[in-house]
Amino acid sequence: MDLSELDLGAAQAAIAAADTVDELADLRKRFLGKKGAVNRAKESIKTLDPAERPKVGQAVNAFTTGVTEALEGREAEIAPPGSAEPPLDLTLGSHGRRRGHLHLVTQCQRELEDVFVSLGYRVAEGPEVEDDWHNFEALNFPVGHPARAMQDTLYVDLGEPEQVMLRTHTSPVQIRLMETQPPPIYSVMPGRTYRNETVDARHSAVFHQIEGLAVDRGLTFGDLAGTLETFTSAYFGKKVTSRLLPSYFPFTEPSAEFAITCVFCDAAGCRVCSYTGWIELGGCGMVDPNVFLAVGIDPEEYTGFAFGFGLERMPMLRYGVEPIKTFFDNDSRFLSRY
Ligand code: PHE
Fold first, then answer.
1. Ligand 1 within 6 A of 136 CB?
2. Which of 107, 119, 313, 337 would you label with 146, given CA atoms 20 to 30 Å apart?
């Protein structure tokens, strides 16, 4: 057999010359691996004359021991225990990833909630799929009443025809609150609303509203006006003022629309406010006695006011976002800006 491969001196020199962990691994394989020099020598011992076997066997063992020691020694020099590659630091964020954040409409909703919570209001929510009673009937829109046509309704194909719908406003949550809790009530009710609307720059079939309801003894129209003024200056700043103009809603009497001075031209008149100096935000009024009767609250004992306005309007005015569909496109270039 060829024992020249078992030259310990040459093997030790090769091991000492190795510089990397990989080179050492190759040498280990060459000498001690399955098909390495040691194993091949052991195989060939079987072919030897029995008298010669012990001597060659000893030589193979000595080589194995010597190579093993040399490999371990060099391994310790190249990569002393503990000095190996530093542990992977998984606590660092990776490059090129940005944290998500709340949608501009949600941010606006939270901000408005905060303003009203600071005035002592609670936040309530209701279902987006409503029944005729909550969306219309209890709000003093009798069947066939022309006021129903004010809101183009998207009906859901469920139960009797036109009895289940996507809510056209957040006002049904007023009914749900008054049905389940006694006055005093001071609540705001934000949420998504739907109308069978022709889409244009400022109208969308899906949008959000925030509703307000206060029911207590002795509440007056002055309380309504003061509340709206407090809220508009908290959101838009002190130089913005609000005004109320007569309007009509079946569930409030008297009713008003409320507007603020144009934030773009300081009420001087510009394209955004159609040169009127005013921007309409929403509707409001004193709760109609018929609504109180529908939910079992005595209109002789309690009075109340309510208001409701579109949520998208607020950031549209504050940041000049248009058209309204920008909010629902989910273009990350728009979303990441706010
Ligand atoms: N629900 C009305 C609308 O969507 C707004 C409103 C709310 C008016 C509360 C008066 C009182 O147009």
1. no
2. 313
